[in-house]
Amino acid sequence: MKITKAVIPAAGLGTRFLPVTKSMPKEMLPIIDTPAIHYVVNEAVAAGLDDILIITGRGKRAVEDYFDASPELEMYLKKHHKEDMITLLKETTSLSDVHYIRQKEPKGLPDAIRTAERHVGNEPFAVLLGDDIIHAETPCMKQLIDVSTHFNGSVIAVQDVPREKINRYGSVVATKTPGPFPNDVYKIDHIIEKPKPEEAPSTLAAIGRYVFTPEIFDSIKHTTPGVNNELQIADSINILTQTQSVYAYAFSGRRYDIGDKLGYIQAIIDFALHNDEVKEDVARYLQTLR
Ligand code: G1P
């Protein structure tokens, strides 16, 4: 079945970026001049998904305003003959069909995904987490969709990480399985959420891109609080593996963990070095820091 729907959970409190996230959604943190969530929506659209559902919560109105039309601003720009700016603004409203659901309390990622059940219906769907921005020739989500379509099952993106960092991720225990793809495909045995580095069963980390079969909703309903006494999507996936095969794909691409301060700064520097307007000045400036 063709996958057309993307769910983007954006209801988290963003405590790692306090104080700015006190009055601004973390999804709106800019990389140069574009908010993080715009890159995530772009990836979904580039992967062929034309129905985007963003799960928001209190304090997230700026996200809705961002993807909405802005007639006053457009009128002003028209009056001042700033046509290129109008084109830029239009891009934010014409990306795709964007829908919103509010999660009433931040009760964890599985609960945020569960709120999408009615919208998604009985179809496989994509989930993209805003903390991961992935720069890739073929959009990471498109890579996962191809794997999911081939195996007719759920697929999660994985990447090998240094052992000392595995405690930030789901540690995926899986066996390689053959497939007509350029990178390794695995069949998942189970996932341990945020293990201590010395106890992690593997350094294969779950990255915030998933394609789920609709049975994930049942698995979520059976999920009980796990690490940090929170519902964890890794535990829902473990339940799903009991009734169907779940795959992992070592996608190609450069990932920025912008939920982390260093990752956020790295993303800004790398994106600046690829931005025609500023790249030369930024490169020159970085040279002076040596
Ligand atoms: C979530 C998932 C985790 C995954 C990570 C990827 O954790 O629970 O399994 O490895 O995203 O970014 P979070 O970063 O929301 O704590």
Give a written overview of the molecule.
This protein has 290 residues and is an alpha/beta fold. The protein has two domains: 5-256, Spore Coat Polysaccharide Biosynthesis Protein SpsA, Chain A (Alpha-Beta Complex); 260-290, no CATH class. The protein contains eleven helices and 13 strands. It has helices spanning 36-46, 61-66, 71-79, 83-93, 109-114, 117-120, 140-151, 216-221, 233-240, 261-272, 279-288, and strands at residues 5-9, 30-31, 34-35, 51-56, 97-102, 125-128, 132-135, 154-160, 170-177, 185-193, 204-212, 246-249, 254-257. The chain has a nine-stranded mixed β-sheet with strand order 5-4-1-6-11-8-12-10-9. The radius of gyration is 19 Å and the shape is globular. The structure holds 1-O-phosphono-alpha-D-glucopyranose (G1P). 1-O-phosphono-alpha-D-glucopyranose (G1P) is lined by residues 109, 129, 131-132, 169-170, 193, 205-208, 232-234, 259.
